[in-house]
Every structure is written in structure tokens, then in C-alpha cells.
């Protein structure tokens, strides 16, 4: 696909791999931090987008629900504008090379590196001894997702930055250990006011699928009433709305709502502050509801339409896996040869 201002077909700017967990509803953080950027980047890059079900089971998932949410995430991505024709849109467990490369990378990554991963500490909590081994080596599987395609760019929200740095370290160590540049060092692509969408209940916590309170996040499947209610209940502070950047300091909830508004309307902070100047929080929240409904409403409706035909979603995902497998199997073969695994006769 080539649109005005994008790179002509055949001259792609690089190869993108990104992933998303099917652990529940897609939420506004996923959309503003990742999916919306994927839609833009797909014009200029060769893209592979992966629904990472193997990552999902690092914490307990109900099997029937996992199948449903895997399809729903695929439908949500397509509804948001990710093209399953121009890109490979697929399910991680459908491409065995991810797990196979992950094993090799488990032998390259150092325990000390994994011990520094803050997401493991957050997710394992106090009961670290009882966390799954999968949760601990989660970042190695993520590195495999990226490196098995020799991806050059990885668009993610800011919360994934540390994992990407680890993927780069693993790639570099592999190249040095085996004296051959097999893997390019993948560049993170983290941008826009949506790169860090915070909880609606606590401006210091990221918006997340795993937050117990559904009021903490806007799900991509929420209807107008749910969106209005969640913004109404969203935490704010007793001060009037800020009118300058300086007045935003130390006010995480106000900053978050302003960032969300800026991201949804594609406006700068200055433009947003001008738009909302003189309003009460309640009136600002009503405006926010309108812009969110405008953006999310059509995506929500299209997701529901696509979910009426699960067999078609499965066919789309099978085609994506085929494309992905072709690349991944070649890279895995190269890795196996470099490592010294005896080729099968
Ligand atoms: P996941 O499923 O938690 O989130 C998917 C994408 O959404 C972004 N995101 C956010 N961005 C801004 N604000 C938020 N509150 C927010 N919450 C989520 C994430 O940064 C991510 O880009 N480990 C990854 C999945 C993964 C992956 C990969 C990503 C597996 N393999 C390879 C890139 C490349 C994760 O749990 O994302």
C-alpha cells in the first residue's frame, strides 16, 4: 500500500515487529500507545503484528476465554485500521520458531539481566517464589519474537522500553559470542502523547488490563454510557484546570486527562490548554467523552461486526501465520547453523 507521503512499494524503510497480549480487553493505552502508531507505520514499513498468546499464559488464563480474547484482539486491531492484507497479522503460538529461538536466547541472556526487569518484579509481587518460570523468562521470548524476523524497528508504549533494551543486549551478545552479525539491533519506536496512558483512578499507575478496577481503563469495547461514566468517575484534583504547562506540574491526573485529549484529537498541549481554558473539570470530562466516543465508537462497532464471523478471523490469522512462518523458519535455520546444531539429514 502506498499513500501520499509514504515510501513507494518495494522501498520499505525497515521491518517492524510488534506484539500485544490477548489477556483481556484492548484498552485506550494499547490503542494510543501502540495500535494507532502501527496503523501509521504500516504505510512505510514491512510489518508483522503478533498476538502473543504464549506470553499471556505466563500468568493463569482461562483456556476458553483465551481463545475468545485472541480473536477479539485480532478483530480490534483490524477494526482500528491494521491491514491484515498488507501486513502479517498472526498468533504467536502458530509460528513455532518463536519458542524455538527463545530457547537459544535463554542460553544467551544472563540471569543478572533478567533480575533487573521491573515488569517481572511488579507482576510477581511479593510472592516471587510462586511466579511461573515463564514469567521470569518472558523478556527472552519477547526478544525471540523480534529477532526471529530480524526486525529493525519495534513500535511500543513506554512501558516496554526496558524489555526492548534487553532484546538489543541479547542480539548484541549473540552476534559477539558467535562472531557473526546475525541480528540487527532493533530500534524502539516510542512516540506521541499516548506513549504512556495512565489509570483513570491513579495518575501514577499505567492503564492496564490487569488492574482490578474496570473504572481504571477505557476498554475499546466500551459504549458511550460506559465511557461517559468512566470519565465522570475519573480521579481529578480540587484545583481549577491548568492553563499553562507550569500549572500542570505535580498534577498527574490532570496531566493524564489532558494527554488523552491531546492524543485523541492530535493536538499539542498548548492547543489543548487553549481549548479547555476556563472550563470546570466536569465540562472538560464531557468534552473528553465526546472525542473518545468519536474515535472509539466506529472501532467498537467494527470489532463487534467482525466478531460475528470467527471463522473469517481464523482464516485471516492463518494467512498471517503462513507469511510469518516463511521468514521465521529461515532465520531459525540460520541461527541453528551458527550455533552448531547438526543439520537434519
Ligand atoms: P501489552 O499487551 O501489555 O501491550 C501492547 C502494547 O500496548 C502498549 N501499552 C501502553 N501504551 C501506553 N500506555 C499504556 N497504559 C499502555 N499499556 C500497554 C504496550 O507498550 C505495547 O506496545 N510484552 C508486550 C507484548 C509483546 C511485544 C513483543 C511487544 C510480546 N512480544 C515483541 C513488542 C515486540 C506486552 O505485554 O504488551
Task: Summarize the structure in words.
By secondary structure, the protein is mostly helical. The chain folds into two domains: 9-196 and 310-339, Rossmann fold, CATH 3.40.50; 221-305, Tyrosyl-Transfer RNA Synthetase (Orthogonal Bundle). The chain is 53% helix and 6% strand. The chain contains 14 helices and five strands. It has helices spanning 28-41, 53-56, 63-79, 97-106, 111-115, 118-124, 133-147, 161-177, 224-233, 245-248, 252-265, 269-276, 281-307, 310-339; strands at 15-20, 46-51, 88-91, 153-155, 187-189. A three-stranded parallel β-sheet has the order 1-2-3. A two-stranded parallel ribbon has the order 4-5. Helix 4 runs parallel beside helix 14 and helix 9 (224-233) runs antiparallel to helix 13 (281-307). The longest helix is centred in the C-terminal third of the chain and has 30 residues, at 310-339. The model is unreliable at 1-6 (pLDDT under 50). It binds tryptophanyl-5'AMP (TYM). Tryptophanyl-5'AMP binds at residues 17-21, 29-30, 33-34, 52, 55, 142, 145-146, 154, 156-157, 159-160, 163, 194-197, 206-208.
Question: Quick check: average pLDDT?
Answer: 94
Shape: globular
Any ligands, ions or cofactors bound here, and which? tryptophanyl-5'AMP
Helices and strands, in N-to-C order? EHEHHEHHHHEHEHHHHHH
Give me the count of strands: 5
Per CATH, the class of the largest domain reads: Alpha Beta
Separate helix tally: 14
Q: Provide the spatial order of strands within the biggest beta sheet.
A: 1-2-3
**Could you name the ranges where pLDDT drops below 50 across 5 or more consecutive residues?**
1-6
Judged by helices, strands and strand pairing, the structural class is mainly alpha
Classify the helix fraction into a percent range. Answer: 40-55%
If you consult CATH, what is the topology of the largest domain? Rossmann fold
